[in-house]
Amino acid sequence: MPDIDRLQLHTPTSADLPALLAFELENRAYFETWVTARPPAYYTPEGVAAAIEQAQRERQQDSAHQYLAKLDGKIVGRVNLTAVTRPYFNRATLGYRIGEQFGGRGYATRVVALLLEEAFGTLELWRLEATARPQNLGSVAVMQRNGFHQYGRSEKAMRFHDAWSDLLYFERRNDRTGA
Question: What is the value of pTM for the model shown?
């Protein structure tokens, strides 16, 4: 799809507050079917402003790097690197969410590919890790299409929607460093 090539990653700023709040509110119920719910206070202008400020602090501290995925200026998703561990490991944990109306169209695969360029380029990370529940076939496919391989599985690793769920563990190493 030609519009996928126009996807870009941007670090969130206070100017993104109205659009980010609208994106989160529009997709809240959908996201909560796949990931742990955020507290209700997050879904306010003050909550999103605080989250943007925290993202900026974490970026300055090199402890996390958050991005908004935008298509022609419209937010279609979010992608982040958390638990950045330096030195010696130069690793981070990948997470992402794509708005419901953009699902199944290749956006998630492209957003993760863009993040890999940033992670293994500018940020000079050596390894990314990610988890997915086995039921989330779309996320598993996104990981595989982006060169991640599964290295483990934990049984009954998390309680989600009042049921135990396994977790699959994925990794991707930076080919440029020989890691």
Answer: 0.93
